[in-house]
Amino acid sequence: MSDHRRLEKILESAIPQDRLLSAKRIPARYKFDALRPYRPYPKLRMKGYVPSFLVRPETIAEVSEIVRIAKRSRIPIVPYGAGTGLMGAAIAIRGGIMIDTSRMNQVEEISEESLFLRAQSGAVLEDLYNRLQDDGLFFAHDPWTRPIATLGGAISTNSLGYLGAKYGSIGTQLLGLEAVLPDGQVLRTRPAQFSSTGLDLKRLFIGTEGSFGIVTSATIRAFPQPERFALASYKFPSFEDGYRAILTMRANDIRASMVDYGEEDPTHNEEAQLNLAFDGMEGEVNAHVAKADRISSQFRGEKLEDRMAQEFWDDRHDIALMFSQRISRTTYEEEPRTKYDYIHVSLMASKVLQFRSETLRIAKEHGVKVLEVGLWHGPELFSLVLSSKAGNPKNAGLKLWQASDKILMCAQDLGGSMEFCHGVGLKLAHLMEREHGLGLEIMRRFKRAVDPFGIMNPGKAGL
User: What pLDDT score does 328 carry?
Assistant: First the structure.
């Protein structure tokens, strides 16, 4: 009997055969997450990566036993939520056992009094939003992938949503969690809002992409339904005008729930659009909107029609739905000739304009096009979309890879961080030492202590 068949027989003792697939029967969608051949990652294989086994557990007991088997067999574990991650954190680069959490999707408890929701990690964010709406409460985590992303996946990258300007990332909304450790033991942290009793162990699983264990359940803050929700959009003649308006709004304590600022085709200094959302008490919201109107006009901002603000809000999840429709195309007959990359860096506000200028310079030097730049949630979070096209697809990818790295290193050199919401995965792992210095070795010591055999999502997050 081969080692593969022997391991399959052992896994069959832990999970029913209809929820266990070996390599040849695993659907193509599991070969990639959202790090695909149209993105610039030189080590990515065109045909993707097939895990040795795919399992779909329904209980924490099943997850625990699968992990124990993996530990005994020294075989990697790769957690998989919905495959929407941009950095390759859910790709089985070393084979192993991929744990698809989609069957672990139950809402376990909702408390109107204590304002929390507890759900299994495979629950889809949209379903959690709808459940709380039905109970008269509000689920505040609203990323572009809300219709398809899972709770566990969001925690694994410390995802940030459209309403993060007010409510923060999923990590700031997380009260407690349950996770299976690399030896199969189950860790449960208390959902108390405040504690000064040592290390906050839930932080070990926020933004670390399953490197320390598999989150199986989480307790998340719920919020009261706001009395009023309002949208406002403005057009500015230049990026700098809108940037100054955002700075002034913050200085005047204007508390928007959403700040989304974008400039298309920045090489030609095109107009930029600012989209704001406000929620809370009616008088409070009305006052913030009126003040935002006044400040925008001071910086040559033109308020757009209400329908345009509403269209932006209504369409904010469209890209996720498009991705969901395309997800079945996971093998590529030929390498795409046009490559795209998405960069999301965190900077001191005083460095934003300098960084924008450096970005345009670097892109021009490498023959790469900057399609869009923008700010999210305030002046510190800077995003951009890049593209590269060449007769030889490998040349297009290499140019974009080199330009992206230079831009990320520029952000680091300005005292910033190279990513604020999508995690590290495979794509940014080579820059982790530059980002953290000695801090990366400290992280690796934690990793070795918790996962001495290195079975938990190896090769991700620089760990």
Answer: 57
- Of residues 439 and 323, more confidence is placed in 439
- Residue pair 183/68 in contact (Cβ under 8 Å)? The answer is yes
Tell me which of 378 and 337 has the higher pLDDT: 378
CATH classification code of 104-224: 3.30.465.10
DSSP string spanning 259-304? EEEEEESGGGT--EEEEEEEEESHHHHHHHHHHHHHHHHHTT-EEP
What global pTM score does this model have?
0.95
Structure tokens at 68: 């124990």
Q: What is the mean pLDDT of the chain?
A: 95
Return the pLDDT at 335.
78
Number of alpha carbons in the 13 Å side-chain half-sphere of residue 29:
12
CATH of domain 3-102: 3.30.43.10
CATH number of 332-427: 3.30.70.2740
325 pLDDT higher than 90: no
Domain 228-320: state its class: alpha beta
- What is the rounded CA–CA span in Å between residue 32 and residue 103? 20
Half-sphere exposure of 64 (CA within 13 A, CB side): 10
The torsion defined by the Cα of 76, 92, 174 and 422, in degrees rounded to 10, comes to 140
Name 109's bridge partners. 118
Q: In DSSP terms, which residues pair with 220 in a beta bridge?
A: 117, 174
Question: Is a pLDDT exceeding 70 seen at residue 79?
Answer: yes
Residues sharing a CB contact under 8 Å with residue 340, sequence separation 6 or more, in sequence order: 38, 39, 385, 386, 387, 400
Sheet (strand 302-303) strand order: 302-303, 228-236, 272-280, 258-264, 369-376, 381-389, 338-346
Query: Is residue 212 pLDDT above 80, yes or no?
Result: yes
Structure confidence by residue, pLDDT tens digits, 35-44: 998 899 988 8
Distance CA 294, CA 313 (A): 22
Domain residue ranges of the chain, discontinuous segments joined by +: 3-102, 104-224, 228-320, 332-427
Do 228-320 and 332-427 agree at the fold level? yes
